[in-house]
Hints:
The structure holds 2 protein chains of 2 kinds. By secondary structure, chain A is α+β, with helices and mostly antiparallel strands. Chain A has helices at 55-60, 82-87, 116-124; strands at 18-23, 28-30, 36-38, 49-54, 76-81, 91-94, 107-111, 127-130. Chain A has 3 helices and 8 strands. In chain A, the strands form 2 sheets. Chain A has a 6-stranded antiparallel β-sheet. Chain A has a two-stranded antiparallel sheet with strand order 2-3. In chain A, a hairpin with a 5-residue loop joins strand 2 (28-30) and strand 3. The mean pLDDT of chain A is 93. By secondary structure, chain B is of the alpha+beta class. Chain B has one domain (4-172). Chain B has helices at 4-8, 14-18, 36-40, 45-51, 57-63, 83-97, 162-169; strands spanning 105-108, 114-119, 123-131, 138-146, 152-156. A 5-stranded antiparallel β-sheet of chain B has the order 1-2-3-4-5. Chain B is globular and about 40 Å long. The two termini of chain B are 24 Å apart. At the A-B interface, helix 3 of A face strand 1, strand 2, strand 3 and strand 4 of B.
Amino acid sequence: MTERPATPDDPEITAAAQLLRRIHPTWIVPDHQGGRKLSRQAYQDQKSAMSVFVEERLEELGLSAADVLTDFDGYGLAAFPASAARSCGLRVVSDPNEADGLRGRAHALVVGKKTGSVQKALVSASTIRVWPGEAVSRG
Amino acid sequence: MTATALASSRMLSEQDISRVPSYGTPSPRSLGTLSDREIQRPVSEASFMSRVPATYPDVRGQLQPFLNLAPNWDSYGGRPIDPTIIDVAQYLLVSISESELELPSLVPTSLGGLSLEWHRPTVEFAIELEPEGGIGQLRAVVFFSDDVSGEQWEEDLSQLEPAQLQRALSQFH
């Protein structure tokens, strides 16, 4: 994964498009009042390019969000709209990954510096589709 | 990394803080008990465990799993946690164990670091330890966010005012 400062935002990924990110179990933390939260570390990246899958593209391929977790037992899945990333000054860039099979065609990168406040904004915009360790509902 | 701010929080004694090692940029100031040679040597699990006081089983239990994270542990090319980070976290956790603070959640970072995080439903305080530069060097960044008041800041630990740190930590007794 390399930094792509010159890569423009992809307008074909709509503002409402849900971007899906696998969640390692350690990125879920207790809030000490009976609940649990997504840590900002879920949106840490290397070289300012964060891997996601575009849900609407998965669906065009006949796949679902659950397919992001295939071969990743125990992981969770978070989703946030592309508009949330763009409102933080980040770019959403298509990045098909043929090595990852059919779902790899829906792969994208969220490009730009993820400061603590940017990570926090992404967490606030996120919903947890699958909590780590939960059974994945397919179909 | 400097521990003076933590010391000034009055939740940790100066003796506790004297055990916290200080590594690398941006403000190298040796407060620690580890030699440069120790810092540059990869820490095996056995040597690490031998340095954790036996009276702190919670610290042992919390840190041990992070020694075993393999490359790509997060499925996004995540790096194994830097042994120096584990060392610093160990000292911080031992000190926190002896203070009035609750123990933080430990969250590995994709960059090979470790984040010590205190959470409430609308509040977060974190000390992020990230490797930086050469072997044994790290950066410590503090993040605070309160959704209700709207207060949010991010500072290098070495630049943080003790009063600011104390105020943020006061919510996590």
